[in-house]
Specification:
434 Repressor (Amino-terminal Domain), Rossmann fold, 3 domains, six-stranded parallel sheet, six-stranded mixed sheet, 12 helices, 12 strands, 17% strand
Length: 334
Amino acid sequence: MASGTGPHGGGNARPTMADIAKELGVAKITVSRALSSHSTVKDSTRKLIRETAERMGYRLNVSARNLRQQRTRTIAVVIEMAPSHDRLMSEPYPLSLLGGIMQKLTGAGQNMVLTTIDLFAEHPPSTDGVILLGQGVHDDAAAAIEAMGLPYVVWGAAHGPPERIVVGSDNRAGGRLAADYLLGRGRTKLLFLGETQHGEVEDRLAGFEAGLTGSDAGIVNRIACAFTAAAGREAVSRLLDQGRMFDGIFAANDAIAMGAIEAVEAHGLAVPADVSVVGFDDSPGASIFSPKLSSIRQDWPVGGELLAQKVLDLVAGHTVVSRVMPVELIIRES
């Protein structure tokens, strides 16, 4: 690609991070991290990417700074998750968070633009600040937003640079509560279901392991799976088909837990008589599932309001700190 030209060869098209990545043969996220001075990018790679961006006429951060000066009275809400037939955008996450965000922004006279991480990276809207729902695998989504140069806050876990403002639940405490729940029911052969490449899930597992310390119980299997009932069902079915046994399950979210219960019962076992199960989120479906699901509750509506208030404070130039929200164990039938 010639210097200063756009992706389709036109001289007036503004280059994107994808164009820089293609020019250098690297991943777009590497470009994003280099432009935001992320510590995971080598100095030599960062220097090369920045020089290439300058040569190609990349000006995203300049535009972002100009937008802040103009004050659009608009906040972008960027959703990291990819919608699928198994995990819909209409599920409680992210809708419950969005409800809290919209309530706070509307009350402050602010507009809200809702988009996805890929669309935002390629075609950033005119906005004063960004709320990111979900950090992505290995924090990739948060790094991409950081590269935009706008005030931003993240829903997730505090795994990034210390200056990043994060609002999220106390996932480690939630893991410990799940351990206490299963230990209290005499469960000793435990299964953990969830993708720990996500910071929140990593913390849930760490808390779970800490809660088991000093007991006779242990984790017999850790299975990485998507945040869907189908993934939980498949993971547990595969173990039971192999003759692998367990008597307790901690799932990284309620959908995984529900799928796991379906698999357990399909193999002739009973919940909770043979296997106790605890999920995470306390989604609306937890109380109407059969058996009713015990779960770790996180308060999404309040979290949404906090996210909105913190990004507005950042835009206004105020000092802002991260916030860890308490969680609660809701005991039901599972």
